[in-house]
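Subject: Sanity check before I submit

Could someone independently write out the structure tokens for this chain? I want to compare against mine line by line before I put it in a report. The sequence has 1096 residues.
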Amino acid sequence: MKFPVLIAIFGFLLLGGSIFPAMSQSDSSSENVVINEIDINPPGNDSLSVSEWIELYNPTNTAIDIGGWAIASTTVLKQTMIIPYGTTIQPNSFLTYSYKSVWFTDVSELVELRDADGKVIDQTPTITDIEDDFTSWQRIYDGFDTDSVNDWKFVQSNAGSTNGKIAEEIESEKTILTLSIDKQNYIFGETAVITGEVSELLFIEKPFFQAAQVMMKIYGPNGYEISRNLYPDLYLKYETSLSLQEVLGINEGTYYVIVQYGDALKSTQFTVGDEIIIVEEKLDTELSITTDKESYLPGETAIITAYTNEIVPFEGLKFKVTTSNGDQIFDGTLYPDSNGKFTTNIFMTTVAPIYGFNQITAEYSTYSTVTSFELSEDVKEDKPISLFTDKKAYALGETVIITGRVNDFWIFALDLELQQVGMGSLATTVLDRIKILDSVRLEGDSTFRYEFEIADNPKRYGDYTVTVSKDVGSETVTFHVVENPEEFEESSIPFTLFTDKTIYDVGDKIIISGKVKNPVKSSTFQSPVIDIAIKPVDGPTIISTASKPTGFKSAIVFYTLTAVPDTIGNYEVIDTLYNAIYPPGDYLIRATYANGKLFATTPFSVVDPLDIDGPIVTLDKEVYGLGEQVHLTALVPGGGAGKPDFGIVLTKPNGNEDKFGGVIDNGRLSWTWTTPLSETPSVIQNDRYVFSSNYGVYKISLAQSDTAPIIVFFKVSPNPEEDSLNIEPLTVTTEVPVYSAAENQKIKILGTAIKKVQGNQGLVVPYRVDIIIKSPAGLSLDSSSVYLDSGGNFQSLFVMPVTIYKEGIYKVTAVYQGIRAENFFQVDNDFIFGGEEELALVIGSDKDEYHPGDLASISARPTKLVFVETIEVGIPTEEQTKLNCGAFICGIGVPITTLRQDPTGTFIYEHKFPDDAVLGPYIITLNAEFGTFTKQIQLVEKIPVPEESSLGERVIEKFNRITDPEIQITVNKKTVEEKELSPRVIQGSLFTTLRGEEANVNLKISAPDGTCIIGPDVNCLIKDSTRLPGQIYEVVRIDGIDYNVRYNGPDVLLEKYTILPVDSDAFFPDSDWNVEVIKEEQSSRLYYKVTYVVTG
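---
Independent answer below. Compare away.
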């Protein structure tokens, strides 16, 4: 017996200690993108070619957007490359960049990786490369970052590929190790092939860094023992072979193979001899029993099936079935087939059945098992035939399952008719509609089943009836095919009336439709009809002159329409709104059914869109995203008869122009343009010229040869739902609102202007923008005069001497062709000029509280304009500063770092708190020639914050052309296609169709608690436009939530509003917002949309 040998081996491994060296992995991997490798001096002349390169690596498990990040040389050349917007580095992936010739210097170079806000994400140590060959500076393995120069090595380059991996500490349950041999039994002279695979590469750090090996031991008879050490290949596999020759010490018997990788162990065995020795592995015996269904009715047959993986000769499976009362109703003995399967049938009696759960108990040899099934009562409806569908509404492509039974009789079959009825269908002719005549056979219990697959064709949308019938009776059921069956709700209103729109243009077709919930059945073919009368809201019913046969006078009759409902009550009628019958105005439709027992009304309006003084140009919205379509429409007075077509000029943010043509059709012009699919990043070439990105303001100019151009603007934004369009003739601002005298050396003034149209005859000198900077006292400090670029942008740089720009608020003024714009900026200047105040250091930190593992950014500068060569810095705990050294000088008490001033006179220091750092107060301590200066910071415990899901995908619900004077906007969380949607933005507009009535038609919006947010009433929070200098939104607080509200003001043809929570991560609670149109008889149209964000 060989098994004690294997047990003894494992005992030695587990109790006597490991026979292999211990391996571990550092957790020093970075949590952000790092500079992984850099070659600052590749072979050849760097000034003649773009050959210097840098490799970035993402060591995290998520993709990171690095668009707009910068890679900067910080020493002599100070060349900075901006990574294109939209660039994403995938998890555990590399990106390699080259920029320009002589990007880096060969001696004492330090390269930084900065994010889009200018924060330093990673940097190299100070490196030198004078070899002019293929060697590069690279991390000792990918992503290894302990903020030490020892993280780096200078070896042969391998751009775009791995420097070597370091894994995390090995845990046996996480490390995967496999082991296999090509067969289990060998004869002398054969070769055993041993293979396996590991889940990851491991490394040994002590006594020196090296890759881990797969340690293998093979034990056999007569003390046979050999060892093999293997390295996993590039595919993490390993392989070796063993020649089974007697001359090599191989004896007959069983051999054991044991491998270890890290803390993972695997073993197997094989035999060697003159003949094959079969080693059988004994499996645990299994026994199971099931029924074909979970529930049965009296009269049905249950199929019982049992299975075992070990057949016992001459042994039978004994089973019994007991009721919920404990009474035994069946028993028996079953014998297995060659596959270990037992089967039998039992009949559910119809004589005094006992309803409830029945239990089946089975015993086979020494094993037993139990299962159960339910016997349910057969409940019948009190009618001849029962008929059902599995759902009320279906989508295209789904299968309708029709079931039922004959309750009091048994017959062989039923006739079945499935019909797509007319009015609810998109099929326009009878031939396009489905009608199936078939029969269904009944089962022994009088039940039946029929399936109908709905074709994936839009013509199959609509209502359907299913009728089964025979001499015993008939039954009908309806179902519906719709776009969103999950949201379908069948109306309970007895009689409904709708129009396809609420506002029509003269000459449009109006579709009047509805449904009779319970249409009147008749034994004849004469069905009651629906009478439809249309009248002006303030006038009598429309009349018409009816012609009579010859010899009779014509008569005046009421103008009415008639509709005939289909078999399930749907009806529809179409009429044309001719100007002679329906002049512009408001109308009321009244429909009656069954001699007036049922009636319904609905209003609509007719307008003449061409009854205008001049062309009206509109866009479907003001702000668009990338890849969206811009829809422009224009109305031309008088139908455009005799007028030339429009020329359309699109001016982009960079000043480039695209020209198009537009054709007037019956007084209307329609034009569509698609915004760019991706962003082109803004790259400043010099201080005078700027290339703009695809984001920004676009201008559309429409002109006919005999009229002045009409100008409309729109904006392309990365966040169109929450952005707004701001068109001002002249704007001016500064690059940053606050300038620090210690950090900023130049002030950048930026602005835009709508360019004045100048002639093109002779020498044309473009108009310029005059810029003036004034001090807090109103004195002029500096000025310039600059040209606009082709897109109407301008900028200028001003030097900011610290002795002139004292602390205070400064004003910048821009003047362009008589238009004036102003803005303000602040200067912080803590320098002391003159006086007898002592020289000191001002210490700053990016935060006052830090967590273990955080990186603290410390800065310091003198209070006077003096040169300080070096200072010393250390950050001890408060307890360490209390150390008393008696007569000796202790110093700071912790390791110190010597700092030198940067070009702005500031000392910069970054300190990494260890993950196991002591919590409590720390003292930033700086020693200078003129004294010691301190600042206290706190190290506190980090509170875990749950991860939030990415908010990217948005869903918009739109509601258009509403004429009701009052509506309710319901914003609730909803689930669509297993995605949770949360309401983020409410936007809407009110359009007054008649020019001159703007002041008499106003908007009023109330919050769920009744507070008037927008409106003309005295108690409304917002009555006028929220647009003020430097302001777009006004903040209001409702039920403890702050909302940004934007409103363009009353007394305009198109009133617009936007409401959204101030917090960018917040959403509307489930609530109802009320919108009211304050007017008399004026015609208006209300629009609104709700933007939802996918949150789960």
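---
OP: Matches mine. For the report I'm noting this point. The mean pLDDT is 82.
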